[in-house]
């Protein structure tokens, strides 16, 4: 954070600017997925399908923390980048304060409530006598104790990127992920804590990542608009409404993803804990491809938002085109790799024949949707960067929960466990087609605006 990033946003060649913002974000997303996969990997080395199944069943409520971070982080990032594009640093400061303190408050309430209602919620998630205790311990450490640092870690990363400091943001996320990978085997095996050890490792890594961002912002307090000042917190100027409406689609996407995963878990667990464990491993691996697409969209969002607010539509359209090409190309390569290497990759997580059989089958099917996901995510990000509310909301509702859940029941009825994973590519391809239909007329309006200016 040595200087501001006006040159990056306004003058740097677009391909270089996109790469500068996207690469660090993608790397941090990959590391985040790797440390999530590390939990599953190290837990799987105990060859206990019940603990692997418990980690899978506890994942949806934990993912909601990311939803909270995205609600305030992506919404705040969009408004901050647009405020900076208009030269209004004071409003940008107020946006940051609202995002930070609101995210922390919601995370605190969510963590306490989730632990208190676990006897009601966990059976709905699919737990049984073999997995309930493991899930309870996991939620205690990752959500109740670790909720605030987990949310602030991700939220602050979004806000720091809004000023163009993608590298610094990604370093903080990566630091937490690497620390988690180091702590996992120490707490799981020598201390014999099992799944609880993995949960404590996740909590500690997010605490340390949060302090990284706090120290970073304190060190650069004279230059950054992102501050922890309670005095800057405001409910005026339409800031809460703008942040929440822009960030809400990302929150809804996570919420619907949780709903989708819960339904999927309930259906699959009816077959066996090996089936749920295999499915959980496959979804963790597939998250790698999703992380790349998500990293690209998050990375390029400030560049799009800044130039949109500055009315530099030509540069904005060039950034969109470049990011689209990069995202789809990388997603396609990810599909090819995961499809061809499904068996050895799944086997690397657990040495249980039935679990591996389920896992490789699920992975080969759900990975084929990676290019479609990259298209949908990029279009959602464009809408968010330019302050659109309705369109990203529609796409968020459709992609997860709106389409895939009905198809889960249909495919389960038609082909049983082998058919369930097909719900994912069917839903994602439909969502990608609809996202293109929504984007084409919007793109034409932007082009007309550019020609008239």
What's the quick description here?
With 453 residues, this protein is mainly α. 83% of the residues lie in helices and 0% in strands. The protein starts with 5 loop residues before the first helix and ends with a helix.
Textual characterization of the structure:
This protein has 453 residues and is an all-alpha fold. It has 18 helices and no strands. The relative contact order is 0.14.
Low-confidence stretches: none
Radius of gyration: 21 Å
Note the beta-strand portion: under 5%
Distance between the termini: 34 Å
Chain-wise SSE layout:
Layout: H1 6-10, H2 14-44, H3 49-85, H4 89-116, H5 118-125, H6 132-145, H7 147-162, H8 166-188, H9 194-219, H10 239-269, H11 273-309, H12 313-340, H13 342-347, H14 353-366, H15 370-385, H16 390-402, H17 404-415, H18 423-452
Helix pairs in contact: 2-3, 2-8, 2-11, 2-12, 3-4, 3-6, 3-7, 3-10, 3-11, 4-6, 4-7, 6-9, 7-8, 7-9, 8-9, 10-16, 10-17, 11-12, 11-14, 11-15, 12-15, 15-16, 15-18, 16-18, 17-18
Features:
mainly alpha, 453 residues, single chain
């Amino acid at each position: 954070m040595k200087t501001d990033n006006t040159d990056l946003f306004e003058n740097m060649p677009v391909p270089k600017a996109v790469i500068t913002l996207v690469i660090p974000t993608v790397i941090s997303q990959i590391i985040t997925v790797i440390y999530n996969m590390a939990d599953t990997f190290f837990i799987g080395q105990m060859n206990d399908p019940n603990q692997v199944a418990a980690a899978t069943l506890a994942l949806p409520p934990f993912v909601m923390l990311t939803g909270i971070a995205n609600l305030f982080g992506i919404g705040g990032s969009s408004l901050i980048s647009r405020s900076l594009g208009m030269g209004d640093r004071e409003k940008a400061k107020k946006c940051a304060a609202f995002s930070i303190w609101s995210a922390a408050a919601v995370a605190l309430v969510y963590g306490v409530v989730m632990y208190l209602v676990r006897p009601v919620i966990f059976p709905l998630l699919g737990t049984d006598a073999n997995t309930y205790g493991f899930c309870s311990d996991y939620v205690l450490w990752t959500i109740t104790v670790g909720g605030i640092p987990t949310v602030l870690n991700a939220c602050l990363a979004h806000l720091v990127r809004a000023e163009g400091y993608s590298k610094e943001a990604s370093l903080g996320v990566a630091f937490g992920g690497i620390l988690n990978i180091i702590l996992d085997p120490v707490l799981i095996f020598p201390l014999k804590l099992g799944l609880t050890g993995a949960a404590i490792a996740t909590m500690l890594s997010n605490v340390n990542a949060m302090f990284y961002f706090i120290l970073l912002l304190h060190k650069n307090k004279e230059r950054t608009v992102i501050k922890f000042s309670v005095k800057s917190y405001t409910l005026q100027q339409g800031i809460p409404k703008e942040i929440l409406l822009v960030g809400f689609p990302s929150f809804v996407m996570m919420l619907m993803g949780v709903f989708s995963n819960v339904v999927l878990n309930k259906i699959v667990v009816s077959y066996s804990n090996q089936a749920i464990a295999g499915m959980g491993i496959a979804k963790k691996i597939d998250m790698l491809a999703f992380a790349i697409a998500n990293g690209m969209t998050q990375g390029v969002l400030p560049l799009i938002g800044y130039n949109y607010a500055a009315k530099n539509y030509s540069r904005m359209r060039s950034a969109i085109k470049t990011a689209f090409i990069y995202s789809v190309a990388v997603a396609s390569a990810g599909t090819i790799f995961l499809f061809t290497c499904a068996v050895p990759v799944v086997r690397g997580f657990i040495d249980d024949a039935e679990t591996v059989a389920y896992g490789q089958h699920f992975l080969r099917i759900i990975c084929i949707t990676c290019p479609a996901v990259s298209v949908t995510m990029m279009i959602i990000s464009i809408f968010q960067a330019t302050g659109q509310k309705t369109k990203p909301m529609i796409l968020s509702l459709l992609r997860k929960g709106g389409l895939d859940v009905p198809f889960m029941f249909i495919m389960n009825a038609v082909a049983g466990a082998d058919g369930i994973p097909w719900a994912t590519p069917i839903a994602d391809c439909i969502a990608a087609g609809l996202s293109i239909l929504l984007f084409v007329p919007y793109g034409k309006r932007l082009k007309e605006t550019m020609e008239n200016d």
